[in-house]
Structures are given as structure tokens and as C-alpha cells.
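Notebook, bench 3.
Goal today: get a predicted structure for Multiple sugar transport system permease protein from Actinokineospora terrae so we can plan the truncation constructs. The sequence was checked against the plasmid map this morning, with no discrepancies at the termini. Length recorded as 319 residues. Pasting the sequence as submitted so the record is complete.
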Amino acid sequence: MVTIAPVEPERPEPAGPGRRSGTGGLAALLVSPTLLVLGLVVAYPILSAVRLAFFQRDDGIDPETGLREQGDVFVGFDNFTDMFTGDTAERFLNALTNTTTFTLVAVSIEVVLGVLMALLMHRAFRGRALVRAAILVPWAVPTAIAGLLWRWVFQADGVANDLLPGAPVLWTTDGAQAWLAVVIADTWKTAPFIGLLVLAGLQVISTEIYEAARLDGAGPVRTFFSITLPLVKPTLLVAVLFRVLDTLRMFDLPYTLIGPGKDATDTVTVLAFEEAVKFGKYGPASAYAVVLFLYVAAVAFVFVRLLGADVFGTRKGSR
């Protein structure tokens, strides 16, 4: 009796250190222009802002010449301590609170609406392509244009007051109604973004999993929480991370919709912009920017390290 042993395919020899180092050197050479550009447009402004955060503009009289001179004076951490104990402490803490509450409330609503949009767009029905295009239109509108559009909606004689009974609401003045107007406008614009990313996660889920769940007697609610939500969790976390980071640095929507100098809608970015452009205080403005940068970096660290958001899609078997 003749026994035929299976023939194992020949495995290619691993690349030697010479070939690997040569490939790595070529890759480094090819990406070096991109890294250089990134260093100029990203690293340089960040380092400049950090440096300016330790200086304040000093306009005075030169005792030797008697002429007025302008310059920056090193003040150490004074710009940072003034945020919490100085004359602008109350406004900064208010702006930081607004930034955080905007993020928590708006992103929470956007996640719920975005998931519902994704579930709707994932279903097969007549006119699905038209519905998908219509849902994504608000996301494609530039934020500044969206702010002006909603400013027209929230005017005293605008559409919003026409739909509400009673006396007209002054949406674009200072107060809780202004805060609510910004949340509504931001939700309208960016909920489709989360819906688009979640839809991409839904489309890679095998239908066989849903068939098995249906045969086991699982209802729609149990199927969603036991199958759909766990499988789209990596995509959903990335979408939430992007939205949180974007909302923390929100500037154009409250600035164009409500305007600057409003306690209810002041954000850290609006405050930094006013300090730099309106008052010419580049040192305190840079300090605000540095604090916001650290805040955003801490939030990103929490999402990536603690919550497991796979931003670069490098983890295998995450689903």
C-alpha cells in the first residue's frame, strides 16, 4: 500500500536585514516631504502658541530714548494662573463649562439620531438612495453657512417662532434659548456624520448572524443590543471621538449664529479669538489655546486607551 504524504508548499525565505533596511530607508525617503510639511504647518504653530503663552505684550516708554516701544515680556505662568484667579477667570470658567456641556449634550443627541439614521439607511426600501443623499446634505453644508442659515430660522420673525405658540422667543440673544439654538443647529448639521460612519459599520455585518438570531427567537430589541450594537461599537467609538474633539474646539457655529460676547454661548475658542483679535492679547489667547489643546489631548487619550477606540483601524478581530 502506497501512502502519499501531503506536500507542504515552500515558504518564502524571510527578508534579510539588508533588504528590510533598504526598504525602510526608501519608505523614510518617500514620506520625508510629507513629514516636513506636517512639521511646518502643525508643529511650528503649536510650538509658537506654547511660547507665546508665557509672554505678555508690553507697550511702554523707553527710559533711555523717551520713545514709545512695543514688545513681549516673559511672565512665566501668569497667563495660566490668571485663567483661574485673575480678572478673566469668571469668563474663562464659564467658557470652559459651556464647551463641556455643549459637547456632552450635543454629541449624546447626535449619537442617538445618528444611529437611528444609520438603521434607517441600512434597510432596503424604494427610494433609499434618495433618502441617503437627503440625510447627508446638512453635513455637507459649511458650518459658517449653517450658522447663518439657522440665524435666519431663529430670528424674532423667523420660522422657529412661527412654529411655536405664544410670544416670540429671542433665540439669538444671551440666555438659555441661545444655548439651545446652538445645540439644535449643531445636531442638525453633524448627526448625519455619525449616521454615515455607523452605516459603514452596519454594512460589513454578515446577514447570517441576523438569520441565526432570528431562528433563536431573538426580537428586534435584543438583536440590536446583543448583535448590532456590539459589532458596530468600534466604528461608533471612532465617530463619537471625532465628534467630541470637533465640538470641544467649536468656534464658527456659535460665533455666526449667536455672536461673540454672549455668556451662554461663549466657548474657549471664541474667548481665545476675542483676546487675540479684538484686544490684541496674544499671550493670554495662546494660554487659552494651550489649555484647550491639553483638554482635547486628554479626552483623546481616554477614548483611545481606556475606551478602546480604534482610530487607525489597526486592531484585528475587533468585531
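Residues 1-7 have pLDDT under 50 and may be disordered. The chain has twelve helices and two strands.
Flagging this for group meeting.
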